[in-house]
Design brief:
The complex is a heterodimer of chains A (245) and B (696). Chain A is α/β, with parallel strands linked by helices and 245 residues long. Helix content of chain A is 38%, strand content 24%. In chain A, the strands form 2 sheets. Chain A has a 6-stranded mixed β-sheet with strand order 6-7-8-3-9-10, sandwiched between helices. The radius of gyration of chain A is 18 Å and the shape is globular. Chain B is mainly alpha-helical. The two termini of chain B are 42 Å apart. The chains are: A alpha/beta (245), B mainly alpha (696). The structure holds adenosine-5'-diphosphate and magnesium ion.
Chain lengths: 245, 696
């Protein structure tokens, strides 16, 4: 059974259609990609899944339960965690406090066996944060901040992880390490939905990819299928001239 | 004020018509005032709490020109509306422009500071002992409409409101600036984008807002007379209409104004005697004065939930320091020691004033977790303190249980008040608490059943080993109480709850997606904060041996918030500084030697200055939102902290400026002209429509 099932989601901002009748699903233990040019509606989809944006129409089901009307915090309690494209760290707290806050949130559906402090240490080790944990979050570089956001999401021990452009701001080496990290994470059984502009990264780690353009789902399938899809080539991967502009 | 109209001989229908006309006139004034609020809020994102004060100033200026200098009425009105009000708008714009990148709290405080300064300024310019009356346009002549006498002034008021409605419609639908104002109306994150547009739109909207405020002030002054506070708060009633319009829709604002005006006129007209079903010593009549406030509350209840917006890491200009136990311990000992010495040397009167300062400090301390850590605003802390004072005056007669009752009562009241507004964003919580403060002042604290006289006697706390009956001992006791409350707040900041509050202030969206129930967290901190305020109120009542309702009026909340922010809301020491500042405004003029300066006495001069000071200091906060104590501390700390960082690390690489939600327009870079175009497209602004000036 799939972990996340989004069906028929439409989001309208005034006269503008940010998403139109989009469906996607994520299964446990797999990385699913969601790609598309800027403004295609990827972040909006994340907001719909996490409850920050109410869809005009459509349904979001998690673990078979319809969560469309649920509050963001309720969804998180059920095991959905995310990172933000534009970074939503708690700037006035230290790195460690950022993670502790996440760990200390009381769970509605059974407390974790490990303490907040233990989960914090573990998450820092998992993503490999080596810089001092007592530095204020608004002093981090973008790349470091993205890792801290990922660690903060992991502290809640999610079943589904939504990553919004997590590799932007990472250099080539860091990206390779990051790909390995994602593989390790899904092996533990969680499902990941990945939004990312780094196409080689997406193609290498995802088992399944959805392509959005102007709010429309124009293709879905394995990396091979998607790469060969003429609409995708036209709309997103583009001609070299377009890519350069 | 309408009692005259309900003459016994008059027929029921005439009465009804008279009340209705009066209601429509009120509605007209409310609409004019509220539309000004809406225009500035939608274009600048700043809710101008001083809007009413601007209206008051406009009315006084009109009086000066027309009555004192005997200029013709129309000319006077034109000078006020066409010259003075727009000029004042420019000044406002200059003040508010500095507010980019500061929190909602600071924005609220700056406009509250302005409100407070203007209220205090008016009586300095126009001696309140003088008599001021503003003649109606065309005197008292009446026309007869279906048997109801309607003055020309009333007709003009209604007509002016209609013209304003049409003119605003034209501006918003027929001009370029207006169309973009209108387009952003429903979307705050996109409205922020206009903040990066040329300042002209912002200038225009502040001038327009000031003109509308002044216009409403001039029109209502005929009925209300010129009294700074009354006039200011009459326009404040218009908040209710603006909130019905969700601070954005002029049509709904008009509807709100009509409901408000009529409701007020009918209750004033028909509720002439206290109904017999009211319990003894309770009066329903006071409800006539709080209709707008009740409506504001109802409108807030009906507001839809505020969506959680992502905003990126904000490198806020407000910094919350991390207290350490060592510093807290040293501070505690020093405070108690100094107070003990002070208690021995100063005069009797000064002991009381300094004691008041410590009580204020405790009330301000209640804002540290709420506002300093959690980013929530309350304009009712002194009102909660009043509930605390009521509790000690009423129950347990001098026992410690009285203090406990004070904390619990105030906390419970706080929770009840906050509940409806918590799901809304900051500005609405500020409004709800202000509304509650008014309601309490006018409908709760003046009930004979609760306060038989304005000041209810209080038996001072009796403790087993110390005798607090001497004021000097009580002063030291207050210092100890401040220390205890302060240590509680420090502990809170270092606890998981404190972290949670900080996180909520930094990014509500991230908190929610991590599973935090924001409403519950806000409710907890609100109740806690109200409880601390109630504690302060109880101690204040003990100091004076009376719970004096005059100290817990709605207006008293303003200097508390202002001076707390001036001291620094993020630190216990800031609250202490704020409380002592506030007390010093009484203290210092007392110490000034009295001599003549240009016809007035030096003491009167200093008193005037000090009356203005809280407001003026509040206005300057846009420049330094961290408060005085933090400013001094930061100067010392900065050198140490920055020296420890690698030079390359010294500047943040994260977005520092208050980036508007460019991403939401599909833009990932700084905002350019093409982006304005894109924005227009996203917002569905039709260039052709703008060019043609269609008034569809
Ligand atoms: N809060 C909002 N209000 C209005 N329009 C929005 C809002 N958020 C996003 N949009 C629009 O939705 C479109 C999709 O945005 P987004 O989901 O951020 O794209 P992506 O993440 O794929 O770059 C954008 O073109 C933007 O104009
Ligand atoms: Mg995006």
């Amino acid at each position: 059974m799939s972990l996340l099932d989004v069906s028929g989601v439409t989001v309208r901002f005034g006269g503008h259609m940010a998403l139109h009748d989009v469906a996607l699903s994520v299964v446990p233990g797999r990385i699913v990609g969601l790609i598309g040019p800027n403004g295609a509606g990827k972040t909006t989809m994340f907001n719909v899944i996490t409850g920050l944006q109410e869809p005009t129409t459509g349904k979001v089901a998690f673990n078979g339960i319809d969560i469309t009307g649920f509050k963001p915090h309720d969804r998180a309690q059920r095991g959905i965690a995310r990172t933000f494209q534009r970074l939503e760290l708690f700037g006035s707290l230290t790195v460690e406090e950022n993670l502790l806050v996440a760990g200390e949130v009381r769970r509605t559906f059974g407390e974790h066996s490990a303490s907040a402090a233990d989960r914090t240490t573990e998450a820092m080790a998992t993503v490999g944060i080596e810089h001092p944990a007592d530095i204020r979050a608004d002093n981090l570089s973008t790349g470091q901040a993205r890792l801290v956001e990922l660690a903060r999401a992991l502290v809640t021990r999610p079943k589904l992880l939504l990553l919004d452009e997590p590799a932007s701001g990472l250099d080539a080496d860091e990206t390779t390490t990051f790909a390995a990290l994602l593989q390790r994470l899904v092996r533990s059984g969680i499902g990941i939905l990945l939004v990312e502009h780094d196409v080689p990264l997406v193609m290498s780690v995802c088992t399944h990819i959805h392509v959005l353009d102007f709010g429309e789902l124009i293709a879905r399938g394995t990396p091979d299928e998607v790469q060969r899809d003429p609409r995708v080539i036209e709309a997103y991967l583009g001609t070299p001239a377009e890519a350069a502009s | 004020m309408l009692a005259v109209l309900a003459q016994t001989g008059a027929g029921a229908l005439e009465n009804f018509l008279t009340f209705t006309v009066f209601g429509v006139v009120l509605a007209s004034v409310y609409f004019i005032a509220a539309s000004g609020l809406v225009v500035t809020y939608t274009t600048t994102g700043i809710f101008n709490f001083a809007h009413g004060a601007v209206g008051m100033l406009g009315a006084f200026a009109y009086w000066q020109l027309h009555v004192r200098w005997e200029l013709p009425a129309l000319l006077s009105a034109l000078i006020v509306l066409g010259v003075l009000a727009p000029l004042f708008g420019f000044v406002l714009e200059r003040v508010m422009r500095g507010l980019e990148g500061v929190s909602t709290v600071t924005k609220v405080v700056v406009s509250i500071g302005l409100l407070f300064a203007l209220i205090k300024l008016a009586p300095i310019i126009w001696d309140p002992k003088g008599s001021y009356s503003v003649p109606a346009f065309f005197g008292t002549d009446k026309v007869d409409i279906f048997g109801a006498g309607v003055t020309y002034h009333q007709l003009i008021t209604i007509g002016v409101a209609a013209v304003v409605a049409l003119a605003l419609r034209w501006i918003l639908f027929g001009t370029r600036a207006g169309v973009s104002m209108r387009a952003v109306v429903d979307n705050r994150s996109l409205a922020q984008l206009t903040g990066t547009r040329p300042a002209r739109v912002s200038m225009m909207s502040w001038s327009l807002g000031s003109m509308l405020a002044a216009l409403s002030g001039i029109l209502i002054a005929e009925r209300l007379g010129l009294e700074a506070t009354a006039l200011t708060f009459l326009v404040v009633n218009a908040y209710a209409a603006a909130v019905v319009g969700r601070l954005s829709s002029l049509t709904l604002t008009a509807l709100g104004a009509v409901i408000l005006g009529l409701a007020q006129a009918y209750t004033q007209g028909y509720l002439q005697e206290n109904p017999s079903w009211m319990p003894e010593n309770w009066s329903l009549l006071a409800i006539r004065g709080v209709i707008p406030v009740l409506m504001l509350f109802a409108a807030l209840l009906l507001m839809p939930n505020a969506p959680l917006r992502t905003q990126g890491i904000q490198r806020s200009r407000e910094i919350v320091g991390r207290p350490t136990w060592r510093l807290a311990a040293i501070g505690s000992v020093v405070l108690v020691a100094i107070t003990a010495v002070v208690a021995l040397v100063v005069s009797d009167a000064d002991v009381l004033t300094i004691g008041m300062g410590l009580c204020f400090a405790i009330v301000m301390l209640s804002l540290v977790p709420l506002t300093g850590y959690g980013g929530q605003i309350s304009l009712a802390q002194m009102t909660f303190a009043g509930f605390g004072a009521y509790a000690v005056a009423t129950w347990f007669d001098g026992s410690v249980l009285g203090i406990v009752a004070a904390i619990l009562l105030a906390g419970a009241v706080g929770a009840i008040v906050a509940l409806p507004a918590l799901r809304l964003s900051g500005i609405y919580l500020a409004l709800a608490t202000l509304a509650f403060a008014f309601f309490t002042e006018k409908f709760i604290f003046n009930q004979r059943a609760l306060f038989p006289t304005t000041a209810k006697p209080v038996r001072r706390l009796e403790l087993p080993f110390v005798d607090l009956s001497s004021d000097r001992t009580y002063l030291v006791f207050l210092a100890v109480m401040f220390v205890l409350a302060g240590l509680l707040v420090v502990w809170l900041r270092l606890s998981p709850f404190g972290r949670r509050l900080q996180a909520m202030k930094d990014s509500p969206a991230a908190c929610a997606t991590l599973g935090m129930n924001l409403t519950r967290t806000k409710l907890q901190v609100f109740a806690l904060s109200a409880g601390i305020a109630g504690f302060g109120g109880a101690l204040m009542a003990g100091l004076q041996r009376a719970a004096d309702t005059n100290q817990f009026t709605a207006l008293q909340n303003l200097p508390i918030l202002l001076m707390a922010v001036v001291g620094g809301l993020t630190m216990v020491s800031g609250a202490l500084a704020g409380g002592l500042f506030l007390a010093s405004f009484t203290l210092v003029p007392r110490w000034i030697p009295d001599f003549d300066v240009l016809g007035t006495t030096s003491r009167a001069l200093v008193e005037d200055l000090f009356a203005l000071l809280p407001g003026l200091l509040g206005i300057t906060l846009g420049r330094n939102p961290n408060g005085a104590v933090a400013q001094i501390g930061a100067a010392l700390r900065e050198r140490k902290e920055r020296a420890a960082l690698d030079p390359a690390e010294r500047t943040s690489r994260l977005p520092v400026d208050p980036v508007a939600d460019l991403e939401s327009a599909g833009v990932d870079r700084p905002f350019t002209d093409e982006d304005v175009e894109l924005l227009d497209r996203v917002l569905a602004i039709d260039e052709a429509e703008v060019a043609a000036g269609v008034t569809a």
